[in-house]
Model the fold of this input.
Amino acid sequence: MEVYEHSPTSSNLQKALKSALPCSINLVYRTQHPYQSEHAHILSTIPPSATDVPKCWAAAYIDRSMRPGTELWLFAAGEDPNHAAEQDGAPNRVPDGASNHSTSTKRFCPQCRLAVLSLLDNMYTLPLPPLHPDEQPSLELAKQHEKEHPESGPDVVYDLSPGTYMRHLLWPGVVTLGACHHSIVSLCREAGILRSELPGVNAVLNKFLFRITDLPSVKSLPEGLRWGEMRERDLPTVQARTSIPRAMRTLLSLKSVGVFEEATDRAVAWTFLGLDGSLTTLHTEPEWRGKGIAKAVAARIIGECAPGLAVDESEMAWSHADVYVGNAQSESVCRSLGGKAMWEHYWVRIDLSKAGSLAKHASQDVDGRI
Done:
């Protein structure tokens, strides 16, 4: 299947993504985010000259210069539970090690599978840009992790630590794939390119969706607090409060909402709108919890920054959040905003060095069954 490069404003691609909302919400936001480096590629199996959206298609945003952060977002039409393409008769599948309390979705049809594999094959040909200078400490952390844990391989699982997140910097072909639907996880496993670290399929996230029209009003802050944007001087505190490494350059590129003590000018609560539009790094300092501040912060950033960015064909505007299963506090905040957990997905790593002919082999397998 042919793969085409698109611009962020490609009308054909945005039309396809809009038609797939809210399932395509991560890619809708990421392709519109202003922070796109010269190394970014927007790829799709939809020709730029197409007049209609095909039934089976896939699209991706990849920027290898974002390492060690998320480099790749990928969406296929088969993720939509209403996808009407004929199925290949395979049984329902759930990624190994993952619970699936919401729904057991069908396997991709052959054409959607071929579309995803074609994208991965195309990414195999893309050059690897040099590591950003700001990430040199991350590389040193990866080297230290290798010394302490010399065992490696696609099936090796490391204990979760900052070094675990950085280790893949030592493997040029390994890419971080964000907000990955479990059908794509299964497809990557079958293709032999799925890796186990990160922590991958052992850490399930719920996709919470918000209808922007349903958001509650933003309540006033407790006395002694004020609103503001997070400043560069606040970001080391943000980084220290999360177990997920957040690059300074990425945080600086994101829209944010913060709450500050008027007397000390200290940030006591904050959140960001991620590169893919999701609520990111929502946090309230312990002494200010239980006062509804997290809900107010989340409602404010969605209400101010999200409208108009992900609007479906019915003119419904959407926002979203990714919450690890079991994170009761974040789940409570999302539900207080009217959010509903709609499907499960993962942050995983895949090895593109094993791609290049995945679609060819898949086509041969299909032909062999005919």
